Amino acid sequence: MEIVLEKLGLIKEKAVKYATLVESMIDDSIEGLTAKNMDLLRRVIKEKEPLANIFEIELDEMSIRYLALLRPEAKDLRSIVMVAKMSNDFERIGDHAVNIAKSGIFLIDKQFIKPLREIPKMAALVRGMVSEAIDAFVREDVALAKQILIEDDQVDEFRDVLMNEIMQIMKSSPESIERAMHLMSIIRNLERIGDLATNMSEDVIYIIDGKVVKHHTGDDEDIPSIL
Questions:
Q1: SS3 of 17-85
Q2: Domain boundaries in the chain?
Q3: In CATH, which superfamily holds the domain spanning 2-209?
Q4: Cα(1)–Cα(28) distance, integer angstroms
Q5: pLDDT, tens only, 157-209
Q6: Is 167:207 a contact under the CB 8 Å cutoff?
């Protein structure tokens, strides 16, 4: 039993480090976008994404090894399986951050079609949701996991308002369409990050309470970069 708890602690520690990395990718992609900082945007793509890929491989290998050697049961089994799933979620979050960075690079020498006040707010919300999801898992905090479900609705509100604003700009200014499409891509990628954090929170609730919660039921397909 003690060895299982020890190894579970190690795998959670690794997951926290992975989460910290992808959170920084979100931060850098949005700061690079708003500040038109090419160095930050390139760092996300050239430096941090390769690190994220390494983390995913290492965390997957740890999960498989511990499942095979320790043969955990019940809650411990669910926890290790969730880490393996979270590893995939973090990798996808990193991909979405890369997509945002690529759009930021496209927009860096162009005038924004609208002030970007709301996009950084949306980004801060989804970045916080990722942080809360890993905290809820490590601390086994159901209340925090449920809070993320509420925040997911707030992300959807941001998406709806921003998409409507951009659509109106596109209608009135056809020359802005290409720039507008990149902003819409950024918003969709942020929304997907929020969806992934929500999925993780649902898994936390299942691990702790044994209850299946499905707050987000929409299509969760990948949103590719439009570059």
A1: HHHHHHHHHHHHHHHHHHHCCHHHHHHHHHHHHHHHHHHHHHHHHHHHHHHHHHCCCHHHHHHHHHHHH
A2: 2-209
A3: Phosphate transport system protein phou homolog 2; domain 2 (1.20.58.220)
A4: 41
A5: 999 999 999 999 999 999 999 999 999 999 999 999 999 999 999 999 988 88
A6: no
